[in-house]
Amino acid sequence: MSKKDGGSKRGRAAAGLPPDPVIDAYQRDVDRTLLRENLKLTVEERFLKLMELQRFATELRRAGQHAGR
Amino acid sequence: MTDFASLIRLLAQHDIEFILVGGAAATAHGSARLTQDLDIVYRRTPENIARLVACLGPHHPYLRDAPPGLPFSFDAGTIQGGLNFTLTTDLGALDLFGAIPGGGGYEDLQQDAIELKLFGITCRCLGLRRLIEVKRAAGRPRDLEAIAELQALLDENEGRAPSPSDPPTRSRTRRNSTS
Questions:
Q1: Which end of chain A is more exposed for a tag (fewer CB within 10 A), N or C?
Q2: What is the pLDDT of residue B39?
Q3: What's the pTM value of the predicted model, to 2 decimals?
């Protein structure tokens, strides 16, 4: 985390992550552009964005149910 | 919908000892995935459980997906007698974990937690590397995409991200694969 996050590390696992070919395969499909945009935000902004996305998803579901009638 | 801001603030303001885990912790670390509930590991001391009951009680905690009318009393005895609780509250979905697979309880995770300052409070969140380890240890197939994203975030944080000259990103890969 960057200093912008207001986070300070208290400790971390010393061991590196062992390779996992399945996860590596999934990782090739991760859209890093979205992650980089998120990493520019503060932690608080990331949660606000999550809640906005939740509202959007709820509205989409409501609209979908309405359209399906 | 879950009001993450109000839930986190509520827990912190009542001095609950907890660590953010799961999708909310992933969001804190930069995940772009949508999560619906707040997952926390709470410390299972009598004092903390008493604070948890006092803090959440007014927000009508009830077992999620339980049949309506099922007797459920959110009190210290219930929490002491159980371990993990998936709850609905007036503020949204809240999962309380006394312990998580591959991670253990509060005391086991504490050393790998980081402090976050948000919404005017400070709270603890499981560190990114440990979050990945816990999800990997849980071994749930539905977590694979989330783990891959968290590992990509770890790469980004540790400067191991692909450079512009490296193999193309997802969208370009897909375009190329059709040619």
A1: C
A2: 97
A3: 0.85
